[in-house]
Amino acid sequence: MRTPIIAGNWKMYKTVHEAIAFTKEFRQLVKDVHGVEVVVAPPFTALHAVVEAARSSPVAVAGQNLHWERDGAFTGEVSAAMLHEAGAEYVIIGHSERRRLFGETDGNVNRKVVAALAGELTPIVCIGETLEERESSRTLDVLDRQIKEGLDGLSASQVAGLVIAYEPVWAIGTGRNATPQQAQEAHAHIRGRVRQWFGAEAADKCRILYGGSVKPDNIRDLRAQPDVDGALVGGASLDPKGFSAIVRDGSRR
Ligand code: PEP
């Protein structure tokens, strides 16, 4: 049995003050929810404040990105060690906005995954095709490349502990989500490749989240799919009530 995860990616939203207010309200709303890992990914500036505000609650914290070096002359970057010390337990890697807007490659994703694991963070590795790739029937090839290169060199036990987020780029922030069937098809393919390349145990244990316009009214149908182990939520994770409804419905099939 895989424990589901509902993770909120706040992107570049919320000041420290706003992040603390969210966390105080949200932790109350999810305090009696069981059987699900609940994660929020604030901007770096608010990360430690959210860790403090979420202390002794079911809410864990993720970074939205990291650099693969431990420290050094890398202006604007933060390392796994820094995130870990600030109280993060997870880190989002390879989000499509980082790939598209900041030139992140599968090779960079791989270095970051290795650094996150070495720094005791659980990577949430984002993969997914663009609209053009889907319309030219290249979805599965793109997923294969992103998995193969992004997870290159990892051991089976490392992959077993990973979280993969399938986020079709055309569904992110567009209000146009994949149908539950489209999500299941992609998730089953991803799990099949993990099985083929890293073995049955890795495939059975690794959590695969769906991301792309998840809302309180579509999480149930998505979670009903056997290979959808939860969700990575952008816009709808900014409101404590709406996000807690997603957590509640996402905690069960
Ligand atoms: C995301 O940013 O990972 C995401 C899925 O965004 P949204 O839910 O807003 O589509």
Globally, the shape reads globular
Compressed to H and E, one letter per element, the order equals: EHEHEHEHHEHHHEHHEHEH
Give the overall pLDDT as a whole number.
97
Supply the helix-strand structural class.
alpha/beta
Just give the CATH class.
Alpha Beta
Spans where pLDDT lies below 50 across 5 or more residues: none
Spatially, the strands of the biggest sheet line up as 1-2-3-4-5-6-7-8
**For the CA atoms, what is the radius of gyration?**
17 Å
Bound molecules: phosphoenolpyruvate
Note the gap between the termini. 12 Å
**Helical percentage:** 40-55%
Q: Beta-strand level of the residues, as a percent range?
A: 15-25%
* Number of DSSP strand runs: 8
Q: Summarize the biggest pleated sheet.
A: 8 strands, parallel, barrel
Number of helices: 12
CATH H-level homologous superfamily name: Aldolase class I
How many independent structural domains? 1
User: Architecture, CATH level 2?
Assistant: Alpha-Beta Barrel
**CATH fold assignment:** TIM Barrel
